[in-house]
Design goal:
By secondary structure, this protein is mainly alpha-helical. The chain is about 50% helix and about 5% strand. It is built from 18 helices and six strands. Bound molecules: acetyl coenzyme *A.
Length: about 425
Amino acid sequence: MPDKATLKIGDKTIDLPVVQGSEEEVALDIRHLRAETGAITYDPGYANTGSCKSDITFIDGEKGILRYCGYPIEQLAERSSFLEVCSLLLNGELPNGDELQAFQRSVSRHTMLHEDVNRFYRALPKDAHPMAVCSTVVAALSTFYPHLHDLGSPERTQSAIIRLIAKLPTIAALCFKHSKGQPAIYPDNDLDYSSNFLRMMFATPCESYEPDPVIAKAVDQLLVLHADHEQNCSTSAVRLVGSSRPHLFACIAAGIGALWGPLHGGANQKVIEMLERIEREEGSAAKFVARAKDKGDSARLMGFGHRVYKNYDPRAKILRKTAIEVLDKLGVKSRLLDIGMDLEEVALNDPYFIERKLYPNVDFYSGIIYKAIGIPVPMFTVLFAMGRLPGWIAQWVEMHHQDDFRIGRPRQVYTGPTLRDYVSIEDR
Ligand code: ACO
């Protein structure tokens, strides 16, 4: 690979250094482009823009590869646990036994919310979307921990990180309890991360509740699969907000907001709504696929297509298998899984989807599993946020340690009116 590319604009020529990643991806360093030529790049949706260097996650969208810190997602999904993956993403290495135990202990010691945070929920409407509630509460939590906003102190930063990882399941479960008008169930620090979450969601003060290990394992694997995905929309939001150096909790609240949308994490909810609609109205997968192809129809095949994957999303491949296994173990017959698999088969054999390289993404099968294990549909994206949290935090930490760190501030190509004089109101 040459070490530079040459760009000619009018009578100006600039050498752009070639930057190469550890997996031989190539980027052109345009940092001096505007200063030397007056031009900027134009890249709506940032599809060709590398916003940073990162050691955390590698994706090869053409080959369907996803690795966290070098480890294949397939191995982590099968053999690791969510808290171990959190530690991996935050430290760059798998923890040894003692390190993992210490990490698990500190997370389990910080799961409770300040009582005033519990009361805060009451001010919010019961029918609010849980992503809105979750983002609001995480932002509000920054007001309870102002002293942890101290980037100069690794101890305080670590304390903020542990508290967020520990408290997000409590916050998430309370979003659900609040919507139901049920009392909060306090965390049980003897339970593992996912079992504790399930208990806070589904236990009530009047009945005993034992988290089902099959369901807890499925939740834990879902969290592992969602833990990071390099510079996606919500992670870029966390980095961009973080680049002005506000409280970590404010950055994560922004990430939750970005994840909420149906083109990103909100797609898992939309997939189930689509499958239920097909079951109710359309009758056949082929009919819905025809609608998704029709440019005059706003329907899209939710859970299909990805900005980076032009092959089967490796997470969807794992989740397809998990969906079949979990439903089988629980003895649940899911009509939605049947419809989903029909839909996938029709789409994968259709020239429209083949030509555009549209394959199932992580959201296609995750919703079917959530539904089968009893997670309420509006909570699907909240579980995605719980999974993505360590990735957001790891990227935020990495950004603050990078030599070339600068506040994020894209440019634009202005297309509005040119200079004109103000006209007083009586003359308009
Ligand atoms: N159904 C039907 N057609 C689709 C779909 C789909 N799900 N996805 C893309 N296309 C078509 C587009 O209409 C476009 O067609 P054209 O070339 O004829 O105009 C072509 O495929 C390329 O699509 P873009 O929208 O340009 O791709 P982009 O990279 O901008 O968008 C996205 C990616 C947002 C994920 C898109 O595929 C989509 O909307 N999918 C459905 C929503 C979804 O599942 N989101 C979750 C993504 S994964 C995640 O965030 C966790």
